[in-house]
Amino acid sequence: MSTAPADPAAEADGATAAHRVFDLLSEAIISGELAPGAKIKESALSSRFGVSRAPLREAIRRLEERKLLIRTPRLSARVTELTPVRITELYEIREVLEGMAARQAALRMQPDDIAHLRDLLRQHEAALNATEDDVYRQGTADEDFHFFIIQRSGNATLVQILCDEYYNLIRMVRRRHSRVAGRARRALQEHQQLVEALAERDGDFAERLMRRHVAAALRGILGSLDAETRTPQMESGIAA
Amino acid sequence: MSTAPADPAAEADGATAAHRVFDLLSEAIISGELAPGAKIKESALSSRFGVSRAPLREAIRRLEERKLLIRTPRLSARVTELTPVRITELYEIREVLEGMAARQAALRMQPDDIAHLRDLLRQHEAALNATEDDVYRQGTADEDFHFFIIQRSGNATLVQILCDEYYNLIRMVRRRHSRVAGRARRALQEHQQLVEALAERDGDFAERLMRRHVAAALRGILGSLDAETRTPQMESGIAA
DNA sequence: CGCGCTGCTTTTGTCGACAAATTAATGACA
DNA sequence: TGTCATTAATTTGTCGACAAAAGCAGCGCG
Q: CA B115, CA A96: separation in Å to the nearest integer?
């Protein structure tokens, strides 16, 4: 039934009904319960969530803002389709933006921050050795790592764009396409290199490493997309 | 009364009432009729625009997405305040994003596109020679130039971010802070250099020029902000 | 005389219903 | 039988009203 919020970096579950519905709907979209391209019927969803159409519309509006829905004036909203082109565009933007974040973070990092990052990587490594398939938690660790660096860039607007507005979309890409064999361990190595560059306050190198890291992630995703071309996706509509 | 839409690159005036109100409200905010920090009272505005609160709320939601309003769960929405920090953050992001756009555009430019850009610059120059103070139209020409290059980057997501989501905010910054003496002519020169780099398909140089151009614009704005520190702003609330 | 409490006003969040518009369904016609 | 026009059924956009929460004023109390 997936009624548990369990949404990190999101507003508290009980702020308003609209926020609650927003969390529920994002989860439904990201998990694939609402398949890409599926039409969003307001009355159906409002009755499903037990709220009126007003808060549901607010949630839809917010999901459109976060690029999880596409809405055209009089037509129904539809769930975003993650085409290779779209994913590429998104990751190219991530590349320059997170590269910039890494550069600026390198100049502002405190010893405590470096220690925290090293700790994160230790946990990441442990999780990697312990489980072979828990991609979800691994993705969360990856997010923690990236978000921490972004936050240390000191650019609040950048933090908002990457950690808030595009958070769900990136999570959706990762959740659905980012289970490339062996990629996790290489990613960990890249993270470790990046932390060293940050520790040395080498903004130039940190930016370069981050850009390569994001570009490599994109290549992995595109490669796996190529491999699974025309693999039947057994996702169902909302009527579970 | 300023009921004329006159909003370039925006949706048609009559798509829905919410769109119309969105245009009206953005204009009111950008022009300064709604002063920064001013509270947005839904009922007052809905009666002012002659619509119900539903489409007004939709417009508010969209304006929050475009960063022209800040809204906290139960408090009233407030008009964004353009602090120097915020402007700096925005322009640093523009720098990397538009730099990237220029690089990619350099590789995709067609002869027609170069001709169009040269034509734009001729018009820009003519306008600059003709009028001494029409900053608004000059700003529009500047937008046309930047937007065209961004669009030729081929990255639709990037176009959406820069030409749609941040369009109004950038316009607001320009409208309120970008009338630095002599900056317009230097900006034109920088544009001309940029077009040459694009014509030569020198993506590396185009990116560098664009970044310098945006950074210079930011310096101009910050300088003028410094100069007018504590200058009384004679903006009034909505009750005109 | 300052501070906290109570009650009132204002404002947002939510609801149910109506109207316009789109989509589909049906039937007529070439 | 295929295509198009007309009509029925959804679905979105909009409205006015109610309820809950926040802000504000006046009052009592230490």
A: 29
Cβ of A96 and B99 within 8 Å? yes
The reply to whether A76 has its C-beta less than 7 Å from any atom of strand D is yes
Cα gap A31→A176, rounded to integer Å: 8
DSSP element (H, E) containing B39? strand B39-40
Please name the residues in contact with A69: beta carbons below 8 A apart, sequence gap of 6 or more: A29, A40, A60, A63, A77, A78, A79, A80
Per-residue flag: A59 CB under 7 A of strand D: no
Whether B93 sits inside 8 A of A161 (CB atoms) is yes
pTM: 0.86
The answer to whether the Cβ–Cβ distance between A161 and B16 falls below 8 Å is no
Taking CA atoms, B125 is separated from B105, B121, B148, B189, B194, in Å, by 23, 6, 17, 10, 15
Are the CB atoms for B73 and B113 separated by under 8 Å? no
The whole-angstrom distance between B129's CA and the closest CA on chain A is: 37
pLDDT value, residue B126: 87
Question: Which pLDDT tens digit goes with each residue over A73-95?
Answer: 888 899 999 999 999 999 999 99
Tell me the domains of chain A and their CATH numbers: 17-79 (1.10.10.10), 84-227 (1.20.120.530)
Q: Count of alpha carbons within 13 Å of B101, Cβ hemisphere only?
A: 27
Angle formed by the axes of helices A84-108 and A203-227, to 10°? Answer: 160
Q: Which nucleotides of D are covered by protein (CB under 7 A)?
A: 10-17, 21-23
Contact between residue A13 and residue A23 where contact means Cβ atoms under 8 Å apart: yes
Q: Scanning the structure block, which residue is given the tokens 């997405």?
A: B65
Distance of B1 CA from C4 C1′ (whole Å)? 46
User: Residue A127's pLDDT is what?
Assistant: 84
* Segment B116-154, tens digit of pLDDT: 999 999 988 888 887 766 666 677 888 899 999 999 999
Is it the case that residue A14 has pLDDT exceeding 60? Answer: no
